[in-house]
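The instructor's notes for this session suggest beginning with a concrete chain rather than abstract definitions. Hand out the sequence below and ask the class to guess, before any prediction is shown, which regions might be ordered.
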Amino acid sequence: MHQVGHPPDTLPRLTEIHQLLYERVLRNGRAHVETLTAETGLAEAEVATGVADLLRMHLLRLSPQDGALIPSSPEVAAAHLTGPIEAQVQLHRRSIEQIRSHLLTLNPTYIEARHLDRGGTSVDVLTGLPAVQAELGRLTSGCRTEVFAAHPVLPPPEALDEGLQRTLDVIERGVRIRTLYPHAVLAHPYIQAHFAKMTDHGSQLRTSDQVAERIIVFDREVAVLPDRVRPSGGVGAVVVREPAVVEYLYRSLDSLWSTATPFCAAPNRVGYGQANGDLRRAIVELLALGHKDEGVARRLSMSVRACRRHIAAIMESLGAESRFQAGYLAAVRGLLGPSGAAGADRTPPQEEPAAGPSDDA
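After discussion, reveal the predicted structure:
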């Protein structure tokens, strides 16, 4: 027979016979097995089996007065069947919370042991912004020699202001601070002002055309990375203490640092300053590889609008009619090459001032 439902294994499957019997009882308001057999033309055994199934699923119930079959709504039937299951689910949830609460009493002991074992081979996962901030604060305050970081996105002004004094305190302890940002952040005057304060106090800042991911390395012993693979939907981080992994991350970051442009405030803190040529060259290189505007903007950590503004200026200076042609002409004229390696035959693009804090980087 045709099946009209796919219930769990504990329930019979609904068939056309079930539907026919249920509809007949609904129309009559109440019925007996004998009546259903006569009205439907089904065999008595089929009716008896179908009625038994409907009673089991609480779609029918027996009248206490005369034993007649009385229909129930599917919602009421579902409540009868799911009620005990929901009660068990709640019980299991309470058990889960009790187990977590019981075992997590040892969490401070675990964290303290991890902190003491600075030379150990461990990876810790932090979930939630408070936990991440607390661990970063602890690592910063305990840092002895160097904080080496890369940040691929533009920090909001309040975040910079909040961390300024904490960073200055670290510098006063004699800790070296090196920070790498993408060129695109220099379009914002407040970033230039903040960078100027930092460099005045001894912090080292450089910018590069592409900064792929955020990373902070403390004392060349501990690395903190964003956790982007766990489906938690919130803020998370991974703290790595495995020496070989930390050394690899440190050397990779140091290699990027060696080719980056040292920060030098632009005149009147407007524009990209010394980084302008590298930024334009990076755009042209990506265009020559066939990247779309959105892809170029994403790789260079800038908005699509700002990217298109740069592309338009580059195309105009090269006399190109398409983005690909701009890349080709730049290659023919020798404008592409290693960052900062401009030769005698290379004419750097003209500086394009940024509009200000409200303009997208």
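Then share the key points. Residues 74-103 form the longest helix (30 residues). The chain has three domains: 16-72, 122-265, 271-361.
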